[in-house]
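Before the break, one more example. Copy the sequence into your notebook; we will annotate it together after we see the structure.
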Amino acid sequence: MEKDPFAEYIRESEPDKSQKSYAWGTAIGLQAVDELTPSKYLIETAIRNIEGEISLEEAGHHIDRYYQERAVHLPDDERTEEADKVSLRIVEILSETAFSFSPNEYISIHRKLFQGIYKYAGKIRDYNITKKEWVLDGETVTYGSASELTATLEYDFFQEKEFSYKNLSADEIIRHLAVFVSRLWQIHIFGEGNTRTTAVFLIKYLRTLGFPVTNDIFVDNSWYFRNALVRANYTNLQKSIYETTEYLEVFLRNLILNEKNELRNRDLHINVLGKNSKVDIHAKKVDIENTLSEKTNEFSDKTIAHIHKLFDRFSYTVVFGRGAIMECLGLKSSGASKLISNLIKAEIIEPVSGYGKGRYKFKQ
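Here is what the structure looks like once it is written out:
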C-alpha cells in the first residue's frame, strides 16, 4: 500500500469520518500479515464510504461487481480479491457494536471474514501444521494439536473469563493481555487466516474492556504484530532462546496506551541477540555500503535510496516478498516487480525457497 490514504481522516475532528478511516486503515493494514495488497479500486471505494457517498453495503456491492465484471484476470487477481473482500468484511465487523466473548464468536469472525474465499471458513482444522518463520530463521512455532483444539480453545476462554482485572496496574493489564492473545493465536485453530481473525477479535474484546483502540497502529505494524506473536510462542533451549511477550507488550502499549515505542521487525529476529547486536547490525550496514559502492553506476540515486530503506527494514535475515516492498517503499505492483528484477540481476537480493512463491532476501 502506498502512503496511508486514510491518515488525514483519522486526524479529522469529525468522529464519523475518523472512526470509518480507522476501521478501513486497520482492515487494509492487516492484509500485510499474509503479504496481500488490496487494489486501488478498494482504496477509492473506501474513501467514498468515509466521505459518506456510499454505505458499507453499497461498497460491498461495488467490490463484488468489480470482480464479476473483470474480463481479464491477472495472476495475482485471486489474492487481491481476497485482500479486498476480507478488508471490507473487517470494516463491517469493526463497525458493529455486537460482541460476545466466546469461542463461538471467535470462530464466527473467521467464518465472516473468509466465507467464499477459503472452503474451510469457520471450520476447525483436523490436521497438524507447521509454518516456517523468517523471525525464527526458518523454524516453526509448535501449534496446537488437531485432536485438542476445541478443548484448548474452550479452556483459554474460560480462564480469561474468570480473570479479574480489578486493581491491576497498566503494566499488569498489558502483560496479562499479551499472554492471553499469544496463547489464543498459538492454538491456530484454522488452516489459514488465524492472525487476521485474532487481531479483529482482540480489537472487539479490548473495546468491551473500555479501550477504544482507534489509532492507526495496525496500518503499518501488522507484520510486527504477527512476529511478536511468533516470538511469544517459541523456545529453543539449545540456542538459549526463550518465549517472550516483551515485543507483544510493546505493541499493545502503543495500541492501548497510545505510546510511540519504535516497532522494528528486525529486532525480533532470533539472530538479533546479545550485547553485540548493535555492533553486528552496524557491521552489516557497512557491508551493504561496500556492495553498493561497487554498483553506483548501475542504479539511480532514487533506487539506491530504496535499497537503503529496504535494508534498514529487512537486513540480511528477513525474507520478504513484493507486497512487503510495496508497503515499505510505497510502490505500485509494477514498480516493485521492476525493482526486484533489477536487484536480482545486480545480485543485491536473491530468491529463497521454503517460504512460498516470490520470496527474497539480501545476498551476503
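The beta strands are 349-351, 360-362. The first strand starts at residue 349 and ends at 351. Try to locate both features in your own notes.
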